[in-house]
Amino acid sequence: MAAESVQSNPDYGIDAPGLVRFFFGAGTVSLVLLLVVLFSSILGQTPKIAVSTLLGMTATYLLGMGCFMLYGSKVMKLKDRDKLLNLVQWSGYELVLDVGCGRGLMMIGAANRLTTGKAIGIDVWQQHDQASNSAAAALSNAATEGVTERVEVKTADMRQLPFPANYFDVVLSSWAVHNIEAESDRRKALDEIVRVLKPNGTVVLSDIVYQVEYANYFEHHGMTNVQLHNNSIRDLGLKAVTFGSFAPSAVSACKRA
Ligand SMILES: C[S@@+](CC[C@H](N)C(=O)[O-])C[C@H]1O[C@@H](n2cnc3c(N)ncnc32)[C@H](O)[C@@H]1O
User: What is the pLDDT of residue 240?
Assistant: First the structure.
C-alpha cells in the first residue's frame, strides 16, 4: 500500500473524535448560557446564583473532559508506549502484531526496537474510533520514524486474524479491544490473540476499560505470568473524574510453552 507524503513529525491522531467534539461543543454551549445568565436580568438574584453555579460547573467539566481526551491521545499514550514496550524482553528478531494499530503507535514503537524482525499492524479503520486512521497514515508515520522496511499493515478484523496459529513472538494492542461492544465479541478477539501467539510469546494489551476482564480471560486460557500494570494514583484519579469510564492500564501475559 502506498504511504502518504513523508511528514516531519508522526501524527498518531485523536481517539474518539466524535466524543471530543461533543465535549467541546456542549462545554461551549454551557459557557455561552452561563454568560447570558450572568450578563442579563432574566433571572432574579437567587436563581441567578444557582443556575450560573450549575452552568459553570457543567462547562468546566465538559471542557475539561475535552482537553483531557486530547491530552490522552496526544501526550499520555505516547508516554505510555515506551513503558508498555519495556514489558517485553526484546532480542530484535521478533515477529510482532499490533491489534487495532490505528495510525501505527505500537507497531512503530515495536519496529524501533527490531533489527531483523518485523511488526505487522491490523485494523478495520473505523473513523469514529480514531480520526483519519488508515493504512496510508500508519505507513506515513512509519516513514517519518524511519522504520518503513520493518513494518507491514493489513486490513483485518481482530475477531478473525488472517494469520496461522503460533505465529507471533509478541502481540501488542493499545486502546483498541474496548471498541468491540459485545463481551462475546471481545472474547473472540482474545481467542484470536492467544491463537496467533507462539508458545512462550508475550502479549501486552493496553486499554481504557475491561483490563480485569482480559486478565481473567488470560488466566483461564493457557496463559502464564498474567499481570495488571497500573499507575494506581493516576488511575484512581482518572476513574473518579470519568465515573469509571476511562482508566488506562495494561495487562501482560505469556503463552504456556
Ligand atoms: C482508539 S484507536 C487506537 C489506535 C492505536 N492502537 C493507538 O493506540 O493509537 C482504536 C483502533 O481500533 C480499531 N478497531 C476497532 N474495532 C476493530 C476490530 N474489530 N478489528 C480491528 N481493529 C479495530 C479502530 O479502527 C481504531 O483504529
Answer: 80
